[in-house]
Specification:
This protein is mainly α. The chain is built from eight helices and two strands.
Length: 225
């Protein structure tokens, strides 16, 4: 028999696991995912002058800009959009906490870095899978893809692919502008590997969760979102 898993709990646990996964990938120094790469580059550059500007702050700052740009592009505004920014801020705080904790773990040598990267990618897939099973608005990244596909009647997987390509291109441009031509910061071979297998990993994790758990709401809040 399947065990019951609260969709609200899936939201919290998903954010924590996702943040931890991103932290491990960053710690490996093999490259972060295309989605977070632009924010990571902003963090690296701005923190050189303002040390208080964390990775988490870069995440929700960039997502706030994306949310502002999304409204005129879609010609639509919903109150639930604002909660996506709340999710981004919550995720940012969790990410900074994870970065602080993981920084005390000694990950030296190629084998340990590979293990760190692999663990991070798997955790990211699990975190996203959990977030797929909740009704609470996701981060602005996922919201933009979902709403764009809905408004313009496009296939969501194609929109996601285009979004990832654009995000990766922006990250490469930022890397060149911030750190010099042919200097790749944040976007490395690990980013490409993640792009190739991340979708498959998320699908496998979702199937695993659905085979063992039945996701149900613990609170009557679904209509509010």
């Amino acid at each position: 028999m399947k065990r019951t898993f609260s969709t609200e709990l899936a939201y919290i646990v998903g954010l924590v696991i996702l943040a931890l996964g991103v932290t491990f990938m960053e710690r490996s120094d093999f490259g972060v995912s295309m989605v977070v790469a632009p924010a990571y580059l902003l963090h690296l550059k701005i923190s050189q002058t303002y040390s208080f500007f964390t990775f988490g702050m870069a995440e929700y700052t960039l997502q706030a800009v994306l949310l502002i740009l999304m409204i005129p592009v879609l010609r639509r505004f919903r109150i639930s959009y604002l909660f996506s920014f709340v999710t981004a801020v919550l995720y940012g705080f969790i990410l900074d906490l994870c970065m602080l904790v993981v920084s005390y773990i000694p990950w030296e040598g190629i084998p340990m870095r590979v293990a760190c990267y692999t663990l991070g990618m798997v955790l990211c897939a699990i975190g996203i899978s959990l977030l797929f099973h909740t009704y609470i608005p996701p981060e602005v990244y996922e919201l933009f893809v979902k709403e764009f596909a809905s408004v313009f009647g496009k296939d969501i997987h194609r929109v996601k692919t285009v979004y990832d390509i654009v995000s990766c291109t922006i990250a490469v441009i930022l890397s060149f502008c911030f750190f010099g031509f042919w200097v790749f910061e944040g976007v490395k071979w690990g980013t490409i590997v993640c792009a190739l297998i991340n979708g498959t990993l998320i699908g496998l994790c979702s199937k695993f969760l659905e085979s063992r758990f039945e996701f149900k709401d613990s609170f009557k809040l679904r209509k509010s979102f």
